[in-house]
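Hi there. Long-time user, first ticket. I'm pasting a complex I've been working with (about 510 residues overall). I'd like to know whether the download I got is complete or cut off, because the file seemed smaller than I expected. Thanks.
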Amino acid sequence: MWMARKTEPSDYEKLLGGLEGDAFQDEVCARLASLIADFQRVPPKPSGDGGLDGLSHGHTVAYCCYGPEQEPFKVNTKGLKDAIVTKFRSDLRKLCELATGPSNRLKRTKSVALPDIVEKGVKIKHVYLISSWFESHKMIGPLATSFATFRARSANQFVAADATVTIWGPKDLASRGAVDEHTMFRIEERALMARVRTAAAAGTLPVSMADFDAKFEDLRKRGPSLAARVDELATYFRKAWATAIALDNELASTSVSLHEALEDARAQSAVTAQLKSATNAEPFALVGEMRGEVAMRLGQAFGQRLGTLTSKVADGEVGRLIGDCHVDWRQHGE
Amino acid sequence: MSEPTDAAFALDALLKEIGASARLSPDRVVRSTLYDMDYHVSLVACAFFINGERRIDGNRVLTTHWLKLLQFIAVRPGLLPNFERWASERRRPDLDTWQKMPRGYLGDRTHDRTIEFLIASGVIYRTPEELLSGERFEVLEVLYQNILERDLLASERSALRTMETIPVNKTMLRGR
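Hi, the file is complete. Here it is re-exported in full:
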């Protein structure tokens, strides 16, 4: 007897649904670019994106993305739905060159960005609103109604008077075209970095921070008037250390070669810093030099893969070296 | 602190202001146990005695790639549920289950080096697809007894015991 298998979200769908902010937008654009020959990503510089994140089909189809932070909405999906509707409403309003005046009245305005983005004389006929969460049909009606209102009030320079709108979630994007190994590799890497950020935000710290705390306490005692700066730096390096630990844990489970590269970068940086320390007469540049060394090694090992995490991880590795007793400034006998 | 890149330099400046001279310990940075050969030898010992097949001639045997996968998951028990799901559903492949196979184990070079060392030491022999006990196999036997007596590597042994129930074949180890 034939039995239906339980339908579960695909891995791609799940990973896409977990991305937030720029990571979500970057993945959506990469996915659409692999599916649509003339997909055009819209960079937000220099004057904003005019509410558009991408265009295709000879600039007649527009795409707006939104990957909201999901943590605050874990138990409040209504809040999440409202946040998405508000964001997309704002994007549609911008496309229609409208702004809200006093008492929320719509007034026409001129977009600075759109004339430089959309081909002259071409009008957008369809808009896809792509969100990392689309589990409520209550988003469809309000957004379609708002879009109709905006079109009616708009001068329709960039959006056709009869333009239509569709909302997509991760499921819709996953089901369009094959999810090949390249796609999975790309999103897993993004998801890895997103998980590192989440784990870092959760503040995973080593079991013992006694040495780390003792070193900063020593600074507080020796420079009581500078206690506020000491606290600020201690807090910063502690958080950065948590990021480095999160990356370490993720790579240890998912990518041995990248984890080994991280270990090598850490060990080699310490050796180089030791050599420099032995010959350098300026002890007050040691931490900065060591941090530079770690950042360079991370760059060699990971290229651009860590993105903005590189500097946080480099600082985190310095935090680790302070906490693991390799860097010390306490006077002997303490 | 607006720019994170400033933090290290800010700490240098603070140390200078306070007159606290930073120095580096000459000790080497301790590497993760994931790259510790003693640890890997211990894992190999556990895998041979928990998951290995004992043949009539007294030899213990393990498929080479199965051992590599066993030890990889044993130190990362978080991967076990995904692997179990992949192993049970791999005959009806789809993208969901395809992703569950922890293919990262193929890049575990520390294990490869450990096996090379054990072969060179005569502790194990290698055939084209299997590893079997060598003339100095008692090294692993004594080590495993020590691990049991001191109740060491409990988490790793537990994961290995769970994987004992998963049927293994060569097609599966090719990721299919």
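A couple of notes from our side: Chain A touches chain B through 57 residues (CB under 8 Å). Chain A has a mean pLDDT of 83.
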